[in-house]
Amino acid sequence: MVAITVILAAVVGTFVLGLGDQIGGSATAGVTVDGDNTTDVTVTLTNLGTAESVKIVDSNGTSINTGDTGVTKNLPMNSTGASVTLDDTTTLGGNSYNIVAVGPGGEQSVLRSFQVASP
């Protein structure tokens, strides 16, 4: 009983003193992927969560950009409902990609992976 009281006091004291604000977390967001492993894959941002934006990176960690051949719409996505389609044009087909949430402090977390099939 005494141990539980001490632990509770420590937890409450941590948050009262503001030390709990320093506890970091990873960026989160909700996405849907339509057409995984097909020649046209559409990623839609359904919930921004704690992220400031969501980007797509290839297997080497290089960000995919709006100007890249085979990419439609804007990247990174930063509003709910935003979507982007990657197709098999040139180098996009046959590759794996990660959808990455980027938090306010620059922290990044992989939300999921998908593949664009070769034609």
Description:
By secondary structure, the protein is mostly beta strands. 13% of the residues lie in helices and 36% in strands. It has 1 helix and 7 strands. The protein has one helix spanning 2-16; strands spanning 30-34, 40-47, 53-58, 71-72, 83-87, 95-102, 108-116. Strand 6 and strand 7 form a beta hairpin. The longest helix has 15 residues, at 2-16. The N and C termini lie far apart (66 Å). The mean pLDDT is 82.
Helices and strands in order:
Layout: H1 2-16, E1 30-34, E2 40-47, E3 53-58, E4 71-72, E5 83-87, E6 95-102, E7 108-116
Antiparallel strand pairs: 1-2, 2-5, 3-6, 4-5, 6-7
> Quaternary arrangement of the chains shown?
single chain
Number of helices: 1
Order of strands across the main sheet? 1-2-5-4
Shape: globular
> What is the CA–CA distance across the termini?
66 Å
Structural class: mainly beta
The largest sheet is: 4 strands, antiparallel
Roughly what is the average pLDDT, rounded to an integer?
Answer: 82
Total beta strand runs: 7
In short:
The chain has 119 residues and is mainly β. The protein is built from 1 helix and 7 strands.
Name the descriptors:
4-stranded antiparallel sheet, mainly beta, 1 helix, 13% helix, single chain, 3-stranded antiparallel sheet, 119 residues
